[in-house]
Specification:
By secondary structure, this protein is mainly α. The protein has 13 helices and two strands.
């Protein structure tokens, strides 16, 4: 039976409607995100530098345990939306006609309530769970030890005698899909709205409603996020300096484009 908290979350979610959008609208989110990026390049690119540096630290720590590195980068994708909180705030301030900058970012990271902290902890658990699951899967089913990127490429990705890589990708997709559906507009909504209007579970319900009503555009959006992130990683993480904040700003416009608050 639903408890009081879930009933309240459902009521909060019902206060929001979902705008109709064409299937290719995610391309428009990227265009507007690109404009926001270069409107506040200093604060935006600083986010990208932090994310790229975090990725570099992961690589340094796991370079001899590439099975762990593969899962860690995927886990990073799971928790990345919470790291983009300052980017959402910058885009919101620009939408309001304000002057976004470093002060906007500082205000966004100053905790006024515990919602983003709770969401961040939950995403951290999800990311950690995937890293452990990925590590156990690869080490259990790989025919040879996997230590370096070359090992993973040759013994897993290019191994014609095994379907391990395909299965690993499918497992990752199965685990990542509900996380994407739960976060695609949830965190921007929590940044935008006060606690009395929207709680964590209400934001998650709203995010799922958006995905269920627009499966095709949101599938395209997920594919674009994945493709651009892979480009960033393939450029020795340098590309993430631009791509990470670009996607963060674009995600704000996805939220604003999709979610509309119904009159009280």
């Amino acid at each position: 039976m639903p408890n009081r908290y879930s009933e309240q979350a459902l009521r909060e979610s019902q206060a929001f409607g979902v705008r109709p959008i064409p299937a290719l609208r995610p391309l428009g989110w990227l265009a507007r995100g690109w404009q926001d990026l270069w409107h506040t390049p200093g604060a935006s690119l600083a986010h990208g530098l932090v994310m790229a540096a975090f990725g570099a630290v992961l690589f340094a720590l796991a370079r001899d345990r590439f099975w762990l590195l593969a899962g860690a980068f995927t886990g990073f994708l799971i928790v990345a939306p919470i790291l983009a909180t300052g980017l959402y705030a910058l885009s919101r301030e620009r939408d309001r006609g304000g002057r976004p900058g470093w002060r906007t970012v500082r205000e966004a990271w100053r905790p006024r309530d515990g919602r983003l902290i709770i969401f961040g902890i939950l995403l951290g658990f999800a990311g950690t769970g995937w890293v452990l699951c990925s590590a156990a899967f690869v080490t259990s089913f790989a025919t040879d030890p996997i230590h370096h990127p070359r090992d993973f490429l040759i013994k897993v990705v290019l191994n014609d005698a095994s379907n391990l890589f395909e299965t690993w990708l499918m497992l990752g997709a199965v685990l990542a899909a509900p996380v994407f559906a739960s976060t695609v507009v949830a965190i921007p909504a929590l940044v935008d709205l006060p606690a009395q209007k929207l709680g964590v579970l209400g934001a998650v319900f709203t995010s799922w409603k958006v995905v269920l009503e627009h499966p095709a555009p949101l599938a395209l959006w997920a594919a674009l996020i994945l493709a651009l992130t892979l480009v960033g990683m393939a450029t020795a993480l340098v590309g993430l300096v631009v791509i990470a904040p670009w996607l963060g700003h674009a995600s704000w416009h996805a939220y604003r484009d999709l979610v509309v608050r119904r009159p009280d």
